[in-house]
C-alpha cells in the first residue's frame, strides 16, 4: 500500500483489508 501509505498509517488492520480489496476489485 504505497499510494495509501499516509492512510495506511491510520487504518491498521480491518480497515486496511477493506480498502485493498475495494481498489483491487475495481468496485
- Which percent bin holds the helix content? 55-70%
Counting helices, strands and paired strands, the structural category is mainly alpha
How many strand segments?
0
Low-confidence runs of at least 5 consecutive residues: none
**Tally of individual helices:** 2
SS strand fraction? under 5%
What number of domains? 1
Rg on CA atoms, Å: 9 Å
Largest sheet report: none
Mean pLDDT: 59
How far the N terminus sits from the C terminus, by CA atoms, comes to 17 Å
Shape label: elongated
Order of helices and strands: HH
Organism: Tectimicrobiota bacterium
Protein name: MoaD/ThiS family protein
Pfam families: ThiS (PF02597)
Task: Please describe what this structure looks like.
It is a single chain. The chain is mainly alpha-helical. It has one domain (1-27). Helices cover 67% and strands 0% of the residues. The protein contains two helices and no strands. The longest helix has 12 residues, at 14-25. The chain is elongated and about 15 Å long. The model has no long low-confidence stretch (mean pLDDT 59).
Provide a concise account of the structure shown.
The protein is mainly alpha-helical. It has two helices and no strands. This is MoaD/ThiS family protein.
How would you summarize the topology of this molecule?
Elements: H1 5-10, H2 14-25
